[in-house]
Amino acid sequence: MSSDPVQRGCVLVTAGCTTGWTDWIHGELWLCPDGLLRRSLGLIATIRHATFRTVKPGDWKTSSFSTEEIEGILALSRKNHWVIWQTIVWARLGNARLDLGIDNGRSLTLMWVPLDDVTPLPMRLPEILGDRLLTG
Fold first, then answer.
1. H-helix or E-strand containing 119?
2. 25 and 34 in contact (C-beta within 8 Å)?
3. For 16-50, what is each residue's pLDDT tens digit?
4. What tens digit of pLDDT does each residue of 51-75 get?
5. Distance of CA 70 to the CA centre of its chain
6. Element housing 44 (H / E)
7. Domains of the chain from N-terminus onward
8. CA dihedral in degrees (76, 79, 82, 86; nearest 10)?
9. Most buried of the four, 52, 64, 98, 130, by CB within 10 Å?
10. Angstrom distance (rounded) from CA 5 to CA 132
């Protein structure tokens, strides 16, 4: 693990994020200056969310994560992901989902509760990804 003191000012976009149709366990999706962080919350949080919004619209929580904290989050579950912006070859933002093509040949789908207002994503992704953000 790195002892890198870098802190990332991140925005919690949703706490109802899954990694696809076969993953029903909710997690947090953080929009960070240098990437996206998905952190699983477990079954109890998923049940607690039921059919409610997981983030209050317009009142997005912020937090900072060091490199060491991100490495620790990734070690906890294979459903936790850290995707650095430069590694994204293409992205498609759809209705309650974000599909990503990553430079290692892998792809990742992030889906969320449709009730959540994920405004930070459509606001920031065009600026961050440019022509790598596909439409349609």
1. none
2. no
3. 899 987 777 889 999 999 999 999 986 666 566 56
4. 666 677 777 889 999 999 999 999 9
5. 13
6. helix 43-49
7. 7-134 (2.30.29.30)
8. 150
9. 98
10. 30
